[in-house]
User: What shape does this take?
Amino acid sequence: MKKKKIIKKTPTRVHAFRCTDEVWSQLKELAKECGISLNRYLTETGLKHHPRQRLTKEEVDALNSLAIARTDLIKISNVLSNMTDEEKLKLFKSEKFMAWWIKSVAELVQHWYSIEENISSPVLTKERSAL
Assistant: This one.
């Protein structure tokens, strides 16, 4: 008969603290918003890391939609960059409109990158963001 391998976990400590029921419920709610346990939330915030809130289904769908639209605009911009000026003028009819469109697309793509960056950065708690 084979012996089971026993894997020892690193020892942990139990710490207690006092707080009001109101503070306790706020902490539980903040942990729930981040989708992590209260223990993990307290550990993370104690280490000065503020866990980010989970995105709602609507926010995830919106972000995916933005990513698809950005990809389409990048593909169109790449096709346009490979065209000659005469081919671009045939498509746009006006040189002024063509320059405006290309500039606007570049700004829009850059704005979407900044939105994506902000979503992936930590979301601060209400008390912290009021400072």
Notes: Residues 21 and 27 are 10 Å apart (CA to CA). Helices lie at 21-34, 38-46, 57-81, 85-92, 95-120, 126-129. The longest helix spans residues 95-120. The two ends are 63 Å apart (CA to CA).
